[in-house]
Automatic annotation (TrEMBL):
Belongs to the fluoride channel Fluc/FEX (TC 1.A.43) family. This is Fluoride-specific ion channel FluC. The chain crosses the membrane at residues 35-58, 100-121. Na(+) binds at G76, T79. The lineage of its organism: Bacteria, Bacillati, Actinomycetota, Actinomycetes, Micrococcales. It is found in: Cell membrane. The gene is crcB. PANTHER family: FLUORIDE EXPORT PROTEIN 1-RELATED. It catalyses: fluoride(in) = fluoride(out). The keyword Chloroplast does not apply. Keywords: Cell membrane, Ion channel, Ion transport, Membrane, Metal-binding, Sodium, Transmembrane, Transmembrane helix, Transport. Fluoride-specific ion channel. Important for reducing fluoride concentration in the cell, thus reducing its toxicity. GO terms for cellular component: plasma membrane. It is a multi-pass membrane protein. It comes from Leifsonia tongyongensis.
Length: 125
């Protein structure tokens, strides 16, 4: 691992986090519900994109460094397991158990399906 790769992953991670912040803010301004839909959409789209990037990278021989920068850096900064976990716990603390289950398990299932779809679509090219 070179210093340049570390810097590239850090910059990409920062850009991914900013993209998440902007996209989540956009969603919150458009969708007013008491469910963390923004985090769900972000994690599901991020999982899809990671599957797609991975499949395309493997199929076309994209160098490992690019996979690390895009996958670990940008998409790692864009998606957020910790926020999803926190929001699930907060829903449970508010005694919104059904919403907590949907958020925790529903997001997991959707993210796995999205990653699989991305891998499948990427393998077609």
């Amino acid at each position: 691992m070179t210093p340049l790769l570390v810097v590239a992953v850090a910059v990409a991670g920062g850009l991914g986090a900013v993209a998440r912040l902007v996209f989540d803010g956009f969603l919150r301004s458009r969708i007013a519900i008491a469910f963390p839909i923004g985090t769900t959409i972000i994690n599901v789209t991020g999982s899809f994109l990671l599957g797609l990037v991975t499949a395309l990278a493997l199929a076309h021989g994209l160098p490992t460094e690019w996979r690390v920068v895009l996958g670990t850096g940008f998409l790692g900064g864009y998606t957020t397991f910790s926020t999803a976990s926190y929001e699930t716990v907060r829903l449970a603390q508010q005694r919104r158990y059904r919403a907590a289950l949907v958020n925790g398990f529903g997001m997991l299932v959707l993210a796995l399906l999205a990653a699989g779809l991305g891998l499948w679509l990427g393998s077609l090219f």
